[in-house]
From TrEMBL:
The chain crosses the membrane at residues 20-37, 43-60, 81-101, 107-126. Keywords: Membrane, Transmembrane, Transmembrane helix. It comes from the Bacteria. This is Uncharacterized protein. The keyword Transmembrane applies.
Length: 160
C-alpha cells in the first residue's frame, strides 16, 4: 500500500475520531458541571476525558499493523501504543494519588517535569525508525499535515 492510500485510511479514522470526540466532550462537559463542587470527581473526570484518545490510538495502531508485516515494524508500532497507555496509566495514578492526599504536590510536579519529555520524544524517535524501516510509513507529522490540508480544502469549499 502506498503512502497516499495509507494517509487516506488514517484520515478516515481522524474523521470518525472527531465525531466521537465531539460526542464524548458533551458527555464529559455535562458530567463536569454536575460534579463541579467535588474536586475529587472533577480531577478524575479530567483524566477520564483522555479515554477516547486511547480508543482512537488503538484503532490507529490496528490500522498501522495492517500496513506492514515486518516483525520490527510491528514491534515498534505496538511499542508506540504501549508508551501511550503507560503514560495514561501513570498520569491517572499520579492524579489519583494527589487527589487522595497520598503524594505531595511537589512530587506530582517533578514527576510531570521528568516524565513529560520522554513520553513526547520517544514516539517521535520511534516514528523516525519506522520511516527508515518502511519508506511508505506515514509519520504523525505527515498525518497532521494531511489532516490540516483536508480541513483547509473543506473550509475553502464552504467559503466558495
Amino acid at each position: 500500500m502506498d503512502r497516499e492510500a495509507r494517509t487516506e485510511a488514517l484520515l478516515q479514522i481522524y474523521t470518525t475520531y472527531r465525531r466521537f470526540m465531539i460526542g464524548s466532550s458533551v458527555v464529559i462537559f455535562v458530567s463536569a458541571l454536575y460534579f463541579m463542587m467535588h474536586t475529587t470527581y472533577s480531577g478524575v473526570i479530567a483524566v477520564a476525558s483522555l479515554v477516547p484518545t486511547l480508543f482512537f490510538e488503538w484503532k490507529q495502531t490496528v490500522l498501522y499493523l495492517r500496513f506492514n508485516d515486518d516483525w520490527t515494524y510491528r514491534r515498534l508500532v505496538k511499542g508506540q501504543f504501549f508508551i501511550l497507555v503507560a503514560t495514561f496509566l501513570t498520569l491517572f495514578s499520579l492524579i489519583t494519588l494527589f487527589l487522595t492526599g497520598q503524594i505531595h504536590p511537589d512530587v506530582l510536579m517533578w514527576a510531570m517535569v521528568i516524565g513529560a519529555p520522554p513520553s513526547v520524544l520517544l514516539p517521535l524517535w520511534m516514528d523516525r525508525k519506522l520511516l527508515k524501516l518502511d519508506p511508505e510509513h506515514v509519520t504523525s507529522n505527515m498525518l497532521a499535515k494531511a489532516n490540516r490540508e483536508k480541513l483547509k480544502r473543506r473550509l475553502d469549499g464552504i467559503n466558495d
